[in-house]
Amino acid sequence: MKSMLNNKLKIYILYFFLFTGVNNLFAQFEQNEDYRIFAINLPDKINFSGENVPLEKIGIKERLDKELLINTYWQSKTILLIKRAKKYFPTIEKILKEQNIPDDFKYLAVAESGLENVTSPSGAKGFWQFLKNTGIEYELEINSEVDERYHLEKSTKAACQYIQHAYSKFGNWTLAAASYNMGKNGLQKAIDVQKVNNYYDLMLNSETYRYIFRILAIKEIIENYEEYGFIISPNDYYRFPQTKQIKIDTIIENIAVFSIDLNLNYKIIKNLNPWILGNTLTNNKNKEYVIKIPSKNYIKFNTQDTIIHICDTKESLFEIARKYNVDIEEILSWNKLLPSKKLKKNQNIIIVK
Predict the structure, then answer these.
(1) Closest by alpha carbon to 148, among 48, 291, 318?
(2) End-to-end Cα distance, the chain
(3) Is residue 170 a contact partner of residue 187, using CB atoms and an 8 Å limit?
(4) Which residue, among 335, 336, 340, has the nearest Cα to 351 in the 3D structure?
(5) Within a 10 A sphere around the Cβ of 350, how many other Cβ atoms?
(6) Identical fold, 47-236 and 305-353
């Protein structure tokens, strides 16, 4: 008898969970009935630098569709790209035009770095992702104090030189762009082996195989973002502050002090001139550097917030961080210090508040 009751109880419990589970399932559908995920309507025609994409060829539409889907539905990343494009494209477009490079190559910079001064696992840096040796080959200064891969104007001009050389070698802009990803020699080997000289007919490594389609997808979405569901008002875009330039052909012993003398701060100088790596510009050869500083209006509405702390005997980073209410990691970053390095008496420490 007891066993029968236990079995009935188990059945009732099972029915209860089944019934409530089904109801919960229907409730979820009711709550989310307006949520839809749509396929992308592919453009009828698309081109890169005036060179038409052969959408009629086997597999080409599918490759474009893949990149459009990825970049449309990775909304947070793509909306950041659209916002950054408004900030950086005017500078890049001007240089591309001056160097006779098609305007579409600005989207190559987006594909390479997302318009950020990032460092790749292989050590490529900046908007245009130059490796050190390639950067030096194209006359960018790279050393412990200066890295012009982070200089937007100079690195863009260097990229234009690379692209022009690649165009001279391969005879079209699409292959020139593909070579930027895999190298001119690597692309030439693939062409020689496969005996075709059209990007869309080549079987390449997975990254380069996708590369042009990523650029095309980024171009299509940025130029027609409303059609892909992105709502952006004019106030949402990122913009450069108005700047002016000063020329320096002498040593700057301390960037923080140099900034304060200009009624600025260390952070502003470094943000506008990311190619300056540390707190010193030795400049033994009296090279002329052009440094961006904000306009008078920007200075007027931004208060000075750089402090130079002079160390006492046996003072620690922990004590300094606590005194100014900042993180030790920030002090290490501002001053290019290693955690293990001991501070010296009268050593200058930059604090950005």
Answers:
(1) 291
(2) 78
(3) yes
(4) 335
(5) 24
(6) no
pLDDT tens figures, 204-238: 999 999 999 999 999 999 999 999 999 998 889 99
Q: How far is CA 228 from CA 9, 68, 234, 345, in A?
A: 55, 9, 18, 59
As beta bridge partners, residue 248 has: 289
Q: pLDDT by residue (tens digit) across 6-18?
A: 555 555 555 544 4
> Shortest CA distance to 146 belongs to which of 241, 252, 246?
252
Q: List beta partners, residue 306.
A: 352
Break the chain into its structural domains and give their ranges.
1-36, 47-236, 241-304, 305-353
Given a contact cutoff of 8 angstroms between Cβ atoms, the answer to whether 260 and 304 are in contact is yes
Smallest CA-to-CA distance from 350 within 319, 308, 320, 318 is with 308
Phi-psi region of 35 (alpha: psi -120 to 50; beta: other; left: phi over 0): beta
Place of tokens 């190298």: 183
Looking at residue 323, its pLDDT comes to 83
State both tokens at 157: 């001009």
For residue 118, the one-letter residue type is V
pTM of the model: 0.78
Tens-digit pLDDT profile for residues 151-203: 999 999 999 999 999 999 999 999 999 999 999 999 999 999 999 999 999 99
- What whole-number distance in Å separates Cα of residue 198 and Cα of residue 177? 12
Residue 104: the pLDDT is 98
Report the top-level CATH class of 305-353.
Answer: alpha beta
Distance CA 55, CA 42 (A): 10
Listing DSSP states for 211-268 in one string gives HHHHHHHHHHHHHTGGGGT----GGGS--PPPEEEEEE-S-BS-HHHHHHHTT--HHH
Q: Kindly provide the b/e burial profile for residues 289-323, where b requires at least 16 CB atoms within 10 angstroms of the residue's own CB.
A: bebbbbeeebbeeeeeebbebebeeebebeebbee
What's the confidence (pLDDT) of residue 28?
A: 47
Which residue numbers in the chain have pLDDT < 70? Answer: 1-35, 297-305, 353
Using alpha carbons, list the distances in angstroms from residue 318 to 89, 330, 332, 337, 343: 42, 12, 11, 13, 11
47-236 in CATH: which number?
A: 1.10.530.10
